[in-house]
Give the backbone structure.
Amino acid sequence: MGSDRGTTDRESGGTFGRDRAASCQGPYGGETDAGACGDPARFEVARHLRVPLRVCAVHLGPSLLPADGVLWPPGICLIR
């Protein structure tokens, strides 16, 4: 039984439809190295004109400066 609430990820703060078992995209979230870590993602780092970068605790720090489009000051959300 599916429910269409008419809410997008952006309108609900990115939590609607979020995959809880997402893998870490760290350390830099490039298209070629996405999922290179394989650990469960625990944080989302907001990025300008890009989907948020999901990273594990180990890659949270390294992702903040060199990753593409990361906002400053960084917007970080705990996802689990």
Notes: The first helix runs from residue 57 to 64. Helices lie at 57-64.
